[in-house]
């Protein structure tokens, strides 16, 4: 398959041992109430991809039947861990952790339920390791429940099976200057797709998405102490503002720094898109 043939939202790439593994929310099922699984695509060059391989399959006893969203896979402590969000008709959306022994292996449930609070509508959990080595999940407390979407974090146990303590609030979507006036008028402020990135000079950034004047966006918040518990300041200038978002950052095997996001943000036209980045003076810029 060519990249332009792949219809997914919320793309995530894991470079591992000479191959690129692409995960995302299935375009065909993303808004449906009968989700069946999650896939991986594999590539050597980021343009030519394998057919999708199902790596998580809904079983009869699995609690969620819809909205299998935003899978992210990390190599951690000798195994591969997937953070993905799920929902059912009678339970809040939340992010769980799944586990496999290889990046395209069969993932099975690892965490003890959702890491996000069970009575919160939450999504888009991503892994962050603090300066002291503690794992955290950064996630969104969704606007459908709180109107002013929140970006939160919660400490996890070292084995990634459970939450430790209570969530901490990083910031609210309304703190961003660039939020579209139409959203403000409705009193709705979306938070989507957090992804932490540490700059070469040690500055900690958090990519996240919402709705700007030109559509879905990729924005940046900056921690004032270089860690998860700092004060987060919103950058006024967007990293990407024209109808694309839910991004992440990875390095290619030839050491290019790439932003990956889905664009456009219209079903069923979503495709993975890359943009080369420059890491300069504690900030990211599209080249």
TrEMBL record:
<feature type="site" description="Important for catalytic activity, responsible for pKa modulation of the active site Glu and correct orientation of both the proton donor and substrate">
    <location>
        <position position="124"/>
    </location>
</feature>
<comment type="similarity">
    <text>Belongs to the glycosyl hydrolase 43 family.</text>
</comment>
<dbReference type="InterPro" id="IPR050727">
    <property type="entry name" value="GH43_arabinanases"/>
</dbReference>
<keyword id="KW-0378">Hydrolase</keyword>
<dbReference type="GO" id="GO:0004553">
    <property type="term" value="F:hydrolase activity, hydrolyzing O-glycosyl compounds"/>
</dbReference>
<dbReference type="Pfam" id="PF04616">
    <property type="entry name" value="Glyco_hydro_43"/>
</dbReference>
<comment type="pathway">
    <text>Glycan metabolism; L-arabinan degradation.</text>
</comment>
<dbReference type="InterPro" id="IPR023296">
    <property type="entry name" value="Glyco_hydro_beta-prop_sf"/>
</dbReference>
<protein>
    <submittedName>
        <fullName>Glycoside hydrolase family 43 protein</fullName>
    </submittedName>
</protein>
<dbReference type="GO" id="GO:0005975">
    <property type="term" value="P:carbohydrate metabolic process"/>
</dbReference>
<keyword id="KW-0326">Glycosidase</keyword>
<dbReference type="InterPro" id="IPR006710">
    <property type="entry name" value="Glyco_hydro_43"/>
</dbReference>
């Amino acid at each position: 398959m060519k990249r332009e043939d792949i219809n997914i939202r919320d793309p995530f790439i894991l470079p591992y041992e000479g191959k690129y593994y692409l995960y995302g929310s299935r375009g065909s099922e993303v808004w449906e109430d009968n989700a069946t699984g999650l896939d991986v695509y594999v590539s050597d060059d980021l343009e030519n991809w394998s057919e999708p391989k199902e790596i998580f399959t809904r079983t009869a006893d699995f609690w969620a039947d819809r909205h299998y969203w935003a899978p992210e896979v990390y190599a951690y402590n000798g195994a591969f861990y997937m953070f993905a969000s799920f929902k059912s008709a009678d339970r809040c959306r939340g992010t769980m952790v799944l586990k496999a022994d290889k990046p395209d292996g069969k993932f099975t449930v690892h965490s003890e339920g959702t890491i996000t609070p069970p009575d919160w509508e939450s999504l888009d959990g991503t892994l962050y390791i603090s300066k002291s080595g503690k794992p955290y999940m950064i996630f969104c407390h969704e606007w459908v429940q709180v109107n002013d979407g929140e970006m939160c974090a919660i400490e996890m146990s070292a084995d990634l099976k459970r939450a430790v303590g209570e969530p901490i609030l990083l910031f609210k979507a309304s703190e961003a200057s660039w939020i579209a006036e139409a959203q403000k008028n409705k009193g709705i402020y979306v938070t989507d797709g957090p992804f932490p990135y540490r700059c070469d000079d040690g500055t900690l950034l958090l990519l996240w998405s919402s709705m700007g004047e030109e559509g879905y966006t990729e924005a940046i918040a900056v921690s004032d102490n270089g860690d998860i518990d700092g004060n987060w300041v919103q950058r006024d200038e967007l990293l990407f503002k024209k109808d694309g978002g839910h991004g992440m950052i990875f390095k290619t095997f030839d050491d290019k720094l790439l932003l990956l996001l889905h664009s456009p943000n219209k079903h069923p036209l979503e495709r993975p898109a890359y943009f080369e980045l420059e890491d300069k003076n504690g900030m990211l810029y599209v080249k």
